[in-house]
Specification:
mainly beta; 24 strands; 8% helix; 307 residues; eight-stranded antiparallel beta sheet
């Protein structure tokens, strides 16, 4: 990866006019990133993993949380932002030596389009084609598959992950957009919209339980909520983050709390108090089967409302 690659990206996709700016540069760890600015918002996205590192709507504080101790290196996922878990979620179902949450978040994605929309938003698209992966990675997922990731950045943040089965047999895909939200003080934050839903409680041996009321965070929480399609909200003292989704039947809620966070090494001192992951995807009972020649779209939209 060198300056010529960045120059090529800017020549093909870079823009700067009265509508906004799309600019590529070398980021931390010598990993290319794209900076996006328009009248509605700004964003920073790493080309490795098509990983959103920042989204800040106009007049709002940063919505996406990234650890101060995050490590930026080729082939490694960044702690924070919006990692893409694909084509499986969590540990691989048959081989636990394969990387947790798949490989999409640690490989370079190709940019296919970037433009300013008449709405004032900016849209950028990335693609990952498994046929172009190295041999080691392809051994973990030999299926002929592609993932198109379309991001629309403005007052809201719209994310579309489209999985296409290019092979001759059905595939089973697990996925999630593993979003770390900047919540300020997680102990004063609640998640609304999951009352009555069944969930798998990882810290308690994946026991199946039922949610009662809103979710508050005062200890480790690591749960996969099943059959969830309704709108959710993350509410803190100053603002509410509203999550709408389609093509997703799982919601993962995660905060490691103090003891687990201290063992992780890259969450930063006290970082767990400022972040909360509420992930939209398809995991556990909700994994997706895609027939040959067909596709599946996971769509999530985030918007911010002041309290």
């Amino acid at each position: 990866m060198n300056a010529l690659y960045i120059e090529e990206l800017n020549q093909r996709f870079g823009q700067s006019d009265d509508k906004g700016q799309i600019r590529f540069k070398m980021g931390k760890g010598d990993i290319p990133v794209v900076e996006i600015e328009n009248e509605q918002a700004s964003a920073l996205i790493s080309c490795q993993g098509a990983h959103v590192l920042s989204w800040r709507p106009d007049g709002q504080e940063e919505v996406i949380w990234v650890s101060r101790e995050a490590r930026y290196a080729k082939g490694q996922s960044v702690r924070g932002g919006i990692p893409i878990c694909w084509p499986w979620f969590g540990a691989h179902s048959e081989n636990t030596s394969f990387p947790a949450h798949g490989f999409a978040r640690t490989v370079l994605w190709e940019i296919t389009e970037a433009c300013q929309l008449d709405s004032g938003e900016t849209q950028i698209s990335f693609i990952l084609n498994t046929s172009q992966l190295d041999d080691t990675t392809r051994k973990t997922w030999p299926e002929s598959t592609s993932a198109l990731y379309v991001l629309t950045i403005g007052h809201s943040l719209k994310l579309e992950l489209i999985t296409q089965n290019n092979g001759v047999k059905a595939i089973c895909v697990g996925e999630a957009l593993h979003t770390y939200f900047n919540v300020g003080d997680v102990s004063k934050t609640s998640v609304t919209g999951l009352h009555g839903k069944d969930y798998l409680d990882k810290p308690d041996g994946f026991k199946r339980k039922k949610q009662s009321g809103d979710i508050g965070i005062d200890a480790e929480v690591d749960r996969v909520y099943l059959n969830t399609t309704d709108e959710l909200s993350i509410t803190g003292p100053q603002r509410k983050i509203v999550i709408s989704k389609q093509g997703s039947h799982s919601t993962i809620v995660w905060n490691p709390w103090k003891q687990v966070a201290e063992k992780m090494g890259d969450l930063g001192e006290g970082g767990y108090l400022n972040m909360l992951c509420v992930e939209s995807g398809n995991a556990a009972d909700d994994v997706v089967t895609i027939k040959p020649g067909e596709s599946h779209t996971l769509q999530v939209v985030y918007r911010v409302e002041n309290n």
